[in-house]
Amino acid sequence: MKSLLVALTLSASLLCAQDPGIPAYEDLEFPQLRQVELPDVAEYTLPNGIRLYLLEDRELPLIGGFAMVRTGNLFDPEDKVGLASVTGEVMRSGGTKDRTGDEIDEQLENIAASVESSIGETSGSVSFSCLSENAGEVLAVFKEVLTAPEFRQDKIDLSKTQYRSVISRRNDDAGSIASREFNEILYGRDNPYGWRMEYETLDAIARDDLIAFHKRYFFPANVIIAIQGDFSAVEMRGEIERLFADWTVEQPAVPEFPTVSAKPDPRAHLAVKKDVNQTFLRAGHLGGMLKDEDYPALEVMADILGGGFSSRLFAKIRTELGYAYGIGAYWGVNYNHPGLFTISGSTKAGSTTETIQAVMAEIERIRTGEVTDKELATAKDTVLNGFVFNFDSPGKTLRRIVRYEYFGYPPDFIFKYQKAVESVTKEDVLRVAKQYLRPEDFTIVAAGNPDEFGEPLTALGKTIVPVDLTIPEPKREMAQADAGSLAKGQAMLAKLQEAVGGAEKIAAVTDFVRVTEVTIQSPQGPMKVNQNTQWLAPSRFRQVQTLPFGTMTASFDGTSGWLAAQGQVQTMPAPVIKQVRGGLLRNPFQLWVADRQEGWTVNAVDDAVVEVSDGKGQVVRVEIDQESGLPVRLLYESVQLSGPVSKLEETFDDWREVEGVKLPHKITTTRDGSPYSELIVREMTLNTGLTAEAMDARP
User: Fold this and answer.
1) Same-domain check for residues 525 and 435
2) Fewer CB atoms inside 10 Å of the end CB: C or N, the chain?
3) How many structural domains are present in the chain?
């Protein structure tokens, strides 16, 4: 075996040795890059106003296409941010009048086809792909999704739930925080480019809003359809014309997209994220547009500065200083509004400020001296070689042609751009760096743990602005209260108190220990959880959960708390604290004597429901059986740890007396209308003598 290893090693050495007949990689010569050649695309305008682009491609028996619609989330109303995104998604998932989205899924899966829809910042799209033999069937679905979506309510609810989950998790990743805040700061938060979807704006969106949005922007004169694949252009034109002949909707011309008018913000913005040991950085200012005369030179300049492994930023900050694994620069452009010039990367927390200082030094270097011939040649090759990949297939070529047409670019733009890149000189790079890079205007965003920074950010000489990472909770609709409804609520609560054992007995309970078995409906199936829950008046809480994968302990002292699992202890996060506070409100030994809690209100919603608020944002509705006076169920909203705000409903059953107080021993919970959990009380003891020290004891 040893001799075999030696032989293999020697063989490898021989293979790695330079054959004198093979040139070194530096001496390899390659043919000049081929010019992009645009195929013949047939262009038509149909009688109803649709612009149609057809590209024959008989290589494979496939057909694909898309409709591009002049719309976008820049047209969202300020109080309904997210409307375009939800509309674009539910156009397809909500199905059509004759078929649900699920039925369309099944139909298309059976023939290996797809139809998809979406709406982005400055365009909407409905696309399709299929075998050419199924084109007629798939085009019919494509047409219905584009022109007559049904927007079924269940799919609207599902889409909004998914977006709520996105909102709830938007601070999980430090890199995403840095990118999001950088974009919003540079564009400004007072206009559609910087608006942010929140629970409140999402909750304000109704089915009628989707219908109205679709009606306003989806009409023939506002649509481009492009199809590529195995067909005759003449025959396809006839088929599309016949298919869309009955779509004759008219609307006023769509307005121009908003302009960008943001002012520079030359400050450093710090997003505190203490659960990471790296700092994620963004720095820069507004960039430009694709059609700008100097864009080719700016793209070459940005590649030299931070475009790859051979760039200056990479060589300095990673290779020489060892501060970061990756760092880059990008002169961002858009078709119709400025993009962002962005320097992005991450570094270990201790070198945060030093990394930014090194970045600024490289910015100054490229603004004050010419780049080398090798840097220029490498960057130009990189830009030109990358550009041709936009046209390496008929489908990508067609999309690019249509997008140029959509944004009003001239037909020869592609060729002018290539020639401009080829003609960039060292003098051009220095000129645009001096003219367009404005270090004095740089916005800096850092997401990380400032406790671990080496030098503080103040060493940058910039004003430090804390980033507010609070996720605003949705406004809870509360019943109108007046003297009459408050008095009625008090009377209903008194009846409840009498039914469960009397207000004095309830108020006399100062602690409890409850042992329960909970079955939770998880995505992987039912999961059994054993819980030991302790409460000590007024607001201490401790819970030990035994799960299939281990034990978790949570402790809260009324202000703060901690979580322990797998031998590790961490501070209780804000979302968990909110959950605990909500649970304390719903604790029967506080809720049932809400009239004795300072700052709490009890308001009658109707003859069977009272609404209890703790005055600090926590609200619960209690449905009361009018005959027995016992509480039937609780209705409330809660921010879920693994997702968005949800509507929960707890139903009480199996009432038993414990030391003179009636308590439910079975609680069934639904979340957003679906079964979520079933809790069975195995043991309940009151006034056990719990102490604060015992409640806070760590495992």
Assistant:
1) no
2) N
3) 3
pLDDT of residue 32: 64
CATH of the domain at 443: 3.30.830.10
How many whole angstroms separate alpha carbon 311 and alpha carbon 383?
A: 13
Cβ atoms of 329 and 307 within 8 Å: the answer is yes
Q: Which two tokens stand for residue 405?
A: 């047409």
13 is a domain residue:
no
User: What is the Cα–Cα distance from 256 to 126, expressed in whole angstroms?
Assistant: 21
User: 70 to each of 218, 220, 354, 413, how far by Cα in Å?
Assistant: 8, 11, 45, 21
- Reading the block at residue 513, the tokens are 């220990």
Q: Are residues 442 and 571 in the same domain?
A: no
Let me know whether 647 and 551 are in one domain.
Answer: yes
Cβ pair 323, 355 in contact under 8 A: yes
**End-to-end C-alpha distance for the chain, whole angstroms:** 53
DSSP H helical segments within 592-653, as ranges?
none
CB 619 within 8 A of CB 635: no
Which of 575, 578, 550, 574 lies closest to 564, judged by CA? 550
Q: Are residues 591 and 458 in the same domain?
A: no
Contact predicate 268/444, CB 8 Å = yes
The residues near 689 (Cβ < 8 Å, ≥ 6 apart) are 511
Look-up of token digits 């890149």: 421
DSSP 150-196: ---HHHHHHHHHHHHHHHHTTTS-HHHHHHHHHHHHHH-TTSTTT--
Residue 42 near residue 233 (C-beta atoms within 8 A): yes
- Residue 139 CA: distances (Å) to CA of 129, 132, 133: 9, 11, 11
pLDDT block averages, 10 residues each, the chain of length 699: 38 46 63 71 97 96 98 97 98 96 97 98 98 98 98 94 89 95 96 95 96 98 98 97 97 96 95 94 97 97 94 96 93 97 96 97 98 96 86 87 95 92 97 98 97 95 95 78 94 97 96 96 88 96 92 94 91 85 93 94 95 90 95 86 72 96 96 91 97 92
Cα–Cα distances in angstroms (integers) from residue 121 to residues 203, 255, 257, 284, in the given order: 20, 14, 10, 22
CA dihedral 403, 404, 407, 411 (to 10 degrees): -150
**Which residue carries 């030098």 as its tokens?**
455
Burial class of residue 259, CB neighbours in 10 A (0-12, 13-18, 19+): exposed
> For the domain that residue 609 is a member of, what is the CATH number?
2.50.20.10
Q: What is the 3-state secondary structure (H, E, C) of 288-299?
A: EECCCCCHHHHH
Tell me, yes or no, whether 98 and 199 share the same domain.
yes
Q: Please state, in angstroms and rounded to a whole number, the distance separating the CA atoms of residues 240 and 143.
A: 9
Q: Are residues 692 and 579 in the same domain?
A: yes
Q: Whole domain around residue 348: which residue ranges?
A: 268-388+409-466
pLDDT score, position 391: 80
